[in-house]
Structures are given as C-alpha cells and as structure tokens.
Amino acid sequence: MYVTKVPNRSSPPAVLLRESYRDGGKVKTRTLANLTDWPDAKVEALRQVLKGETAFVCADALQIERSLPHGHVAAVLGMARKLKLDKLLPKSRLGKLALAMIAARVIEPAAKLATARQLSEATAAHSLGAVLELGAVDEDELYAALDLIGEAQQKIEAALARRHLRDGCLVLYDLTSSYLEGQHCELGRFGYSRDGKRDKLQIVFGLLCAADGCPVAVEVFEGNTGDPATLAAQVAKLKERFGLSRVLLVGDRGMITEARIREDLAPTGLDWLTALRAPAIQALAADNGPLQLSLFDERDMAEIASPDYPGERLIVCRNKALATERARKREELLAATEAELAKIEARVQRGALQGADKIGLKAGAVVGKRKMAKHFELAIADASFSFARNEASIQKEAALDGFYVLRTSVPAETLGTAAAVSTYKSLAHVERAFRSLKTADLDVRPVHHRLASRVRAHVFLCMLAYYLVWHMRKALAPLLFEDHDKDSAAAERPSPVASAKVSAAAKAKVASRKTADGHPVHSFRTLLQDLATLTRNTVRLGDAPPAHMLASPTPIQQEVFDKLQVPLTL
Q1: Upper half-sphere CA count for residue 436 (Cβ side, 13 Å)
Q2: Which end of the chain has less neighbouring CB within 10 Å, N or C?
Q3: Contact residues for 567 (Cβ-Cβ < 8 A; gap 6+)
Q4: pLDDT at residue 245 above 80?
C-alpha cells in the first residue's frame, strides 16, 4: 500500500490510498480510500508508516480528550458475557441498563443516583457507560431497570438452576438479615438482627447455592420471619420451579427442625442433612443414652442409632480444638458476668440499690446479656444480694464441648460418614456468600427501598453481582489472598472433623506477599483497583475524528484477563 497524489486539472490533486497487486502476471493498482480531506500532517504520518519510516507527531496535534478507568470494566463485563448473563436480559435499553447495574455493583457499589452519574457520559467515573453506549442515564431509568430485574427473577433463577443443579445433587441453604433505612418499607419488621442493629427494621433473605457455593436463587422475607418458616418456600422452588425430584438439602440446626422435616421435607421425598441442637445432644448423652462420651477418647467421628430418630442416621463428631476454644470462651463469659454481678453486690451493700425487684432486674440483665443465667445461682432479697457459680451446670455443659451431631435421611451407601461431615461443613460456602454480599464487595446493606418489589429486586441484583464475583474469584484465586490449592490441603487432613488446613502454596503466598509469578498478592477489591489503572482513552489527531485507544496492560493486568479467559477489548 502507498499514498499518491493524482493531478485533477484545475482542482486540487486527489490524495489516494492505493494498493498494488498481481493478476495473471500483470501488476495492477486499486484505490482503497480517498484521503483528500485529510490534513497534510495526517497524510504524511500515514505515508511514513506505510514506508516503514519512524513517524513523529507534533504534541500539539495529538490530544487526549478523555481517559476513563477501564480494566475492571472490561474484566467484569467480559465475565458477564462469558457467563451469558447478558443473554438472560432483554435486548433493549432497559436490558443494557440492567446489565450495567449488575456490573456496576461489582465495580463500585453505590446508590442509584451515584450509579447514574457513574454511567452517564458527561459524569462517568469509569468506562462502563461508554462501552455499553448508554449516553445520559438518570436514576428513574435505573429504577425501571431494577423493576425489570425483579420481573425477570424467576426466569433467570430457572436458567441458573439448569446450569448448576441436577436431580440427586446437593443444595445448600442458609438465611441472613439486613437492616433498612427509614420506617416505611413494606417488608420491614423488628426481629433478630444478625447485623447488631436492633433499633432498625430489617428484612430476612435466604440463599440457595450449589454444592460448590455458586449462588442459584435468593428469596426475601419479612424481617421477623423465623428461619424454619422459610424452608417450605425453598422446597416448593426446588420441586416446582426447578423441576428437581431428588435433592439433598443441607441446612443448619436452626433451619431444618423436627417440624420442618415432618411437614415440609418428608412429604416431598427430599433428602436432608442438618445437625441437632444442644438439648437434643444432651438427651442422647444422658445416662444409658446412645451417645457414650468415652467412645471419643481415641476417635473423632462415629455413627450411632437412637429410637427417637427412626430411619435416620446420627453422626457424632468431636473436634478437640473446638472443645478447647469453647472452654476458653465460656470462662471469659463467666468471668465477665461475675465482674458485673460483683458491682451490683457492692451497690447493694452500700445501700445504693435496694428492693428485690430492682436488684432482680439488674442481675437478670447481667446474666441474660451473655446467656449465663443457667451457670449462676442468685440469692436476692430486699437489702441483700449474692451469687455463685453453678458448677454442676458448668460441668454438664463442658462435658459436651467440641461435640456436634449430624442427622440425615441419606443412607450410608449413598453418603458415607466422612462425606456427610464434609457435606455439612460446605455450608461455609453460603456464609462466605453472605460476607461478600454484606461487606465492601457488594454492599447489599443498608436497604433504602420502600416497596416490597424493589427490595426483592435489589437483593436479587446483589445476588447476580455475587454470581459474577464467585466465578471471578474462582478463576483469579492464584492472584488473591485465597487458598488456590485446597485439594492438597484437604488431602493432608486426618479427618473431615479436624480443622481445615491451609495449603503450603497459600502459606508461601501470604508469607512473601507475592504470587508464584512474582506479582503482588491482592484482595479482590484491590485487584479491581489495580485493573482500573488500565484506561480507555479518547484521542484526536489534528482535525481528524476522535478515536479510542487502550493503555498497555501491565503483566499482572494481562494475567487477570488470561486467567478469566475473556478478551481485553475497548
């Protein structure tokens, strides 16, 4: 190819981009483009490039009109497209806005007004709006897109279930709460707050995950809904909406209770795996009971049978490290309670606190604060107060330190003893999901919406964002402060009851703060911040139309895209 000028009689010459080629042994020429309207400097630059010469561009002629953080956008949006999340949304502007909201929740969680400013062309904080060609965005449009996400929830969840769940699979289920701002949310109720915000209304939401922790579905309930009361809805979802006839549902002891097993699970034929509460374990360990504590002097796991649980398997586990920790914590709670009771005793002796009713209120608040009432004996009168530890109660509880008992309907030939313990411990995947949803990763809380539909859509939006985060973390584990070699660590554990071990590779990574390739180790959030330094630049050469250029990625930025297996595009 070459640039040539063709005389044009009395008019200025035509500047053409031409190419020479052979046709049947003859050399011919064809015109590729008319460059007559190009500035002379630009034509000369192109001529030099085509001749292999070094081109020098005047700094005044080349302008960078705008530079936006882009690497994290390309990574998150690329993963969303790789997972075909965009295919689950309508092909419309609202569909693109919905996809943008999901990606923005991962990139930089914010309120709707702030997100609208991040996406709008004039006030963009990153390149997401430009990549999706959104132009100007306002918060009303984002609310409409949020409504769209809520309306599509059942369809999207069904698609995720088809990807990650099969008949006979393992499903994890757990519940958490989140506090609300304001007093007018349709779902807001006062209830047990896992966030410690007892003075705020809250909602409760339950998360269904596949065996590896991949989120599949979420459901929001009123804030005073008890854990067991949410189980029936999940059973119906698995059976009716997802069309699964055989599933092993794993839930904690507060979720899958005796009543739920009898009324919700048994009639549907679903299998389950859960644990017994402390009173039930104490009943098994009573005199002549099936749980003989001496059996665990040399072992940490065994199956027992009890007539109180016909047709079920009971798997008793004892974790010595957990026993030590519980003993330490109980002693600290006892000592702290004694210190506060001693202050009440001193006030009574000084005459500053009188009356059995007033003394009883103060003492009851102290022992109830740390749930130590069963471990203290209180003597209360109008002008006297004394207390002492209930050593019998303490010893009775201490005897079961480190013990927990699993119960399941699955036969041993389908799920062995060790496998059952490992399966129950996989509930930690859901706990990790809650940590990601409720902390700086995704900021599901606080919730500012009032309408029930908007609250449900907001929580579902955050779950879809976690769906992206989960897959990204899995691919990027070698670059993060995460154990990327869990299989080798698991192989070194003597028993599934024992505390999990960290692999040698992960220990080396944490100690050196370097990856195997010598890159700095990141948290997920700081890795996104590093990616953000890879910019998308709008440049203009002279009077030519603007063009877009990417900054060159650093080695670690390129490795991120290699591990995600998504292209680094404009």
Answers
A1: 27
A2: N
A3: 78, 561
A4: yes
Report the residue count for the chain: 570
pLDDT at 415 over 70: yes
- pLDDT category at 6 given cuts 50, 70, 90 is confident
The one-letter code for the residue type at 371 is K
Pair of tokens at residue 141: 């449009």
Rounded CA-CA distance 46/17 in Å is 10
Helix (H/G/I), strand (E/B), else coil: 105: helix
Whether 171 is covered by a domain: the verdict is: no
pLDDT digits (tens, 9 = 90+) for 345-361: 999 999 999 999 999 99
Q: pLDDT tens-digit profile of 110-158?
A: 999 999 999 999 999 999 999 999 999 999 999 999 999 999 999 999 9
How many domains, in total, are found in the chain?
4
Question: For the packed helices 356-369 and 320-350, what is the interaxial angle rounded to 10 degrees?
Answer: 160
Concatenated DSSP letters of 282-326:
HHHTSTT-S--GGGGSS-SEEEE--TTSTT-EEEEEE-HHHHHHH
Whether 83 and 110 share a structural domain: yes
The string of pLDDT tens digits covering residues 179-198 is 999 899 999 999 988 888 88
* Residues spanned by the domain of 372: 322-398
Q: What does the mean pLDDT of the chain come to?
A: 92
Residue 468, φ and ψ in degrees, nearest 5: -65, -45
β-strand pairing of 271-275 with 247-250: parallel
Instruction: Give the integer Cα–Cα distance in Å for 437 and 104.
Output: 14
Please give the Cα distance from 95 to 108 (Å, whole number): 20
Angle in degrees, 0-180, between the axes of helices 428-438 and 452-476, rounded to the nearest 10: 110
> Are 540 and 546 within 8 A, CB to CB?
yes
Beta strands 385-389 and 376-380 are: antiparallel
Beta bridge partners of 250: 172, 273
Residue 14: inside a domain, yes or no? yes
Are 273 and 295 in contact by the 8 Å Cβ rule? The answer is: no
- Which two structure tokens, joined as six digits, stand for 314? 């009971």
Q: Are residues 334 and 390 in the same domain?
A: yes
Cα separation, 191 vs 222, whole angstroms: 9
Handedness of CA 177, 183, 185, 186 (dihedral sign): positive
Q: Is 522 helix (H, G, I), strand (E, B) or coil?
A: strand
From the list 157, 228, 241, the residue with the least C-alpha distance to 192 is 228
- Residue 69 CA to residue 185 CA, distance in Å, equals 36
At residue 247, the 3 state secondary structure works out as strand
In this structure, are 512 and 557 located in the same domain?
yes
Q: Which of 98, 223, 242 is nearest to 159 (CA)?
A: 242
Residue 368: how many other CB atoms lie within 10 Å: 11
Describe the crossing of helices 139-151 and 153-164 by its angle, rounded to 10 degrees: 50
